[in-house]
Amino acid sequence: MSEHVGKTYRPWTPERYQQAAYSPAAKLSEGDMVFFVLDTVPRLDLSRLHAPYETEKRGAPPYDPTMMTWLLLYAYCVGVFSSRKIALACERNPAFIAIVGDERPDFRT
């Protein structure tokens, strides 16, 4: 989870699902692409994605840009390009749930 000081993001705790007794990630094979994404994205410098939120005070808390990067990268890697299909996968697919945890971004996000 990212540690930025500006605008508060929606709570996002993917590790809760990744380490729980019932873990969506436990249903996946070791070589699943989601584990590559989960290992790779934290190594990227995403500060430019967070910068616009650091001074923004209006509106509801946004989804964490790191989570959205994980989500989009994984979706594109597995051939899911439609925002509606990504939103549906966040509700039903264990790999997507391992990324978003309790969050359920919809297709407008």
Main sheet summary: none
Structural class designation: mainly alpha
**Content of β-strand:** under 5%
Task: State the share of residues found in helices, binned by percent.
Answer: 40-55%
Radius of gyration: 14 Å
Principal-axis shape equals: globular
Which regions contain 5 or more consecutive residues with pLDDT less than 50?
none
**Record field, number of beta strands:** 0
What is the overall pLDDT average? 83
How many domains in all?
A: 1
Number of helices, counting only DSSP H or I runs of 4 residues or more: 6
Following the backbone from N to C, one meets helices and strands in this order, namely HHHHHH
End-to-end separation in angstroms reads: 19 Å
How would you describe what is shown here?
- Residues 28-109 form the Transposase InsH N-terminal domain.
- The chain is an all-alpha fold and 109 residues long.
- It has one domain.
- Helix content is 49%, strand content 0%.
- It is built from six helices and no strands.
- α2 (33-40) packs antiparallel against α4 and α5 packs across α6.
- The protein is globular, with a radius of gyration of 14 Å.
Topology:
Elements lengths: L13 H6 L13 H8 L6 H9 L9 H13 L5 H10 L1 H7 L9
Protein name: Transposase InsH N-terminal domain-containing protein
Organism: Entotheonella factor
InterPro entries: Transposase_InsH_N
